[in-house]
Amino acid sequence: MDYEITVMQVPPQTVVVVDGEIAMAEVGSFIGAAFPQAASAIAATGAAPSGPPLARYDMQGDRLIVEAGFPVDAVIELPEDSGVHCRVFDGGTVATTTHRGPFQHIPQAYAALSGWMQANGMTPAGRPWEQYLSGPHDPEPTCTVSWPCAPA
Q1: How far apart are CA 49 and CA 118, in angstroms?
Q2: Total-model pTM
Q3: Rounded to the nearest 5°, which phi and psi values hold at 125?
Q4: pLDDT per position as a tens digit, 112-123
């Protein structure tokens, strides 16, 4: 798949997420549980998600640190023992692309972003995230992949 890369400025984003440290093979099951858990926590406050579900990733050796949930319009107070957290992701410059097709092929989008950064004098400047515009069972699942970047 050919990936079109766009660079944009994004504002800080308030999110409600579930944290996990998992093996790469556990991503689907973790997200499958985290999204409903985050949505339920948001609904319990009377608020609603302000956009599609998202997940931010950080590879640590053979483990993946994941924050999975939803954007919201404002900070939400959540019980400390709920396993769900409200955070603000930093704003700034991101390189972004859209992946269409099976989610197991998303690494191709990361490779395209990484190659684009190298070719354009940019370097990663934070943890990337995916925003899921459709589910894995759709005929053509779609997500955006955004990676904070800065001049090298």
Answers
A1: 35
A2: 0.94
A3: -135, 30
A4: 999 999 999 999
Is residue 113 a contact partner of residue 47, using CB atoms and an 8 Å limit?
no
Q: In the chain, which ranges are E strands?
A: 6-10, 13-23, 54-60, 63-71, 84-89, 92-100, 122-124, 129-132, 142-151
Q: Tokens 């989610």 label which residue?
A: 103
- Can you tell me the mean pLDDT for 19-31? 94
How many C-alpha atoms does 76 have within 13 Å on its Cβ side?
Answer: 28
Q: Please, are residues 147 and 128 in contact by the beta-carbon 8 Å criterion?
A: yes
Pair type for strands 142-151 and 92-100: antiparallel
Distances (CA, A) of 146 to 55, 83, 112: 11, 25, 11
